[in-house]
Amino acid sequence: TCVAKNEEGYSARSDLEVSVMEKPTILPFSFGEAAVNEGELRQIICSVVKGDEPLQISWSLQGEDLGPGPDLTTTQLGSRSSILMISSVSYRHSGSYTCKARNSAGSASHSAMLRVNVPPRWTVEPTDKQFAQGSDEIRKSVV
Fold first, then answer.
1. pLDDT score at 135
2. CA–CA separation, 82 vs 77, rounded Å?
3. What pLDDT, on the 0 to 100 scale, is given for residue 70?
4. Would you state the pLDDT for residue 102?
5. What is the Cα–Cα distance from 124 to 39, expressed in whole angstroms?
6. With 0-12 CB in 10 A as exposed, 13-18 as middle and 19+ as buried, what is 24?
7. What is the pLDDT of residue 136?
8. Alpha carbons 88 and 37: distance in angstroms, whole number
9. Helix and strand totals (H; E) in the chain
10. Can you tell me whether residue 92 is helix, strand or coil?
């Protein structure tokens, strides 16, 4: 209750309610220390352990918002968690994944690095060539 009084003796009274909102806190998560092999399944869960609802939880990769794709999905688990699942990891999934949770009091984020082992690939496919023995072209090709 708040009461205001002036010099003339007039007063006003009003009741009010104050609510304190708590910003989100995210439970740390990780893909693990070791690199993941191409083709494997990987998933992580982002859990908001503190903070008032309603919450908005979103994912990004290297700062770009993640949308659904053929081998990557995000699913809300109740009102306080979200799972990121990659059904078949490839080189394009490498990078820093960030979960961001927001409410009316503020926001929090946590990031985890995914490193992917990929088999070697030719950047330029070699081709067979024929040279005469002692030719200068052989020395240029070897260098």
1. 66
2. 5
3. 82
4. 98
5. 24
6. buried
7. 65
8. 10
9. 1, 12
10. helix
Instruction: Collect all residues with Cβ–Cβ distance below 8 Å to 106 and sequence separation of at least 6.
Output: 23, 24
Q: For residue 137, give both structure tokens.
A: 């072209």
Tokens for 13, please give them.
Answer: 């009274």
CA-to-CA distance for 63 and 107, rounded, in angstroms? 16
**What is the distance between the alpha carbons of residues 66 and 69, in angstroms, rounded to a whole number?**
9
Closest by CA to 81, choosing from 43, 26, 42, is: 26
Q: With H, G, I as helix, E, B as strand and everything else as coil, classify residue 138.
A: helix
Of residues 138, 141, 137, 63, the one with CA closest to residue 100: 63
Q: How would DSSP label each residue in 31-59? A: --SSPEETT--EEEEEEEEE-PSS-EEEE
Tokens, residue 109: 């984020």
Mean pLDDT split into 10-residue runs, the chain, 143 residues? 81 78 96 94 97 97 88 95 96 96 97 92 77 63 51
pTM of the model: 0.74
- For residue 134, the model assigns a pLDDT of 67
Parallel/antiparallel/unpaired status of strands 116-117 and 36-37 = parallel
